[in-house]
Amino acid sequence: MARLRAYVANDGKVCDLIKYKQEKQHRMIQDEIKIEVDKEIKRKQKTYTDVWNHQTVAGSTRLVDGMYCLTKKLRGII
After folding, report:
1. Between the CA atoms of 78, 43, 34 and 73, what dihedral angle is there, to the nearest 10 degrees?
2. To bridge 7 with a disulfide, which of 12, 37, 39, 41 should be the other Cys (CB 3.0-4.6 Å)?
3. What is Dmax (Cα atoms) for the chain?
4. Which pairs count as long-range contacts for 70-77, CB under 8 Å and 24+ apart, including other chains?
5. pLDDT in tens, 39-51
6. pTM check: above 0.70
């Protein structure tokens, strides 16, 4: 309450303060939603890449040849 009185005493408008707080809360909610969506995308992407890595023949045999190097480049290891 004291902060509100000080804000008004310093020529601050209460409507602007309330609008700022609502916008800040809205941004926080949007950020939380973005974080949850990013986590879900990363989880699904990890599942897909794990399945893809185990299904490639060159990746499972560990032979160091052109195909092995190519699959590592595609996975982003090298």
Report:
1. 10
2. 12
3. 76
4. 75/49
5. 988 888 777 666 6
6. no
